[in-house]
């Protein structure tokens, strides 16, 4: 009669390595209105108008504002969406979208 050998169960480490977060930073210019910024932030990030207004104020005063913190891939997508959002229809001299950049969150 054959003897049955039971091997101990292998334990595997199922912890996942988290991706480091990145900030999406909106940069100021003089060719876009607060209304444009508020609308863009609502359309692209889902920020309510009150949050959009606060962010529009901050970018106007300081030259930049963090609008999202997320994975690098999503941050790149959101930066590209800001760049593709188009000109501000309320300012005739406006030729294009606002600028944005991404940087590692510390």
CATH architecture: 2-Layer Sandwich
Rg of Cα set: 23 Å
CATH topology: Ribosomal Protein L30, Chain: A
DSSP summary: helix tally: 3
Number of E-type strands: 3
| Strand order in the largest sheet | 2-1-3
Shape: rod-shaped
Residue fraction in strands: 15-25%
CATH class: Alpha Beta
Query: By helix and strand content, what is the structural category?
Result: alpha+beta
User: Whole-Å distance between the termini?
Assistant: 64 Å
The CATH superfamily name is Ribosomal protein L7/L12, C-terminal domain/Adaptor protein ClpS
Describe the structure.
It is a single chain. The chain is of the alpha+beta class and 106 residues long. Helices cover 36% and strands 18% of the residues. Strands 2-1-3 form a 3-stranded antiparallel beta sheet. It is rod-shaped. The chain has one domain (22-104): Ribosomal Protein L30, Chain: A (2-Layer Sandwich).
């Amino acid at each position: 009669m054959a003897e049955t050998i039971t091997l101990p169960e292998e334990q595997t480490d199922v912890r996942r390595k988290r991706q480091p977060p990145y900030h999406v930073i909106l940069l100021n210019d003089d060719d876009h209105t607060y209304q444009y910024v508020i609308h863009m932030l609502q359309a692209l990030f889902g920020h309510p108008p009150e949050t959009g207004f606060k962010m529009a104020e901050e970018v106007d005063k300081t030259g930049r504002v963090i609008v999202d913190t997320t994975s690098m891939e999503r941050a790149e997508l959101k930066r590209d969406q800001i760049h593709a959002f188009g000109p501000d229809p309320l300012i005739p001299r406006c030729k294009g979208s606002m600028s944005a950049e991404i940087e590692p969150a510390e």
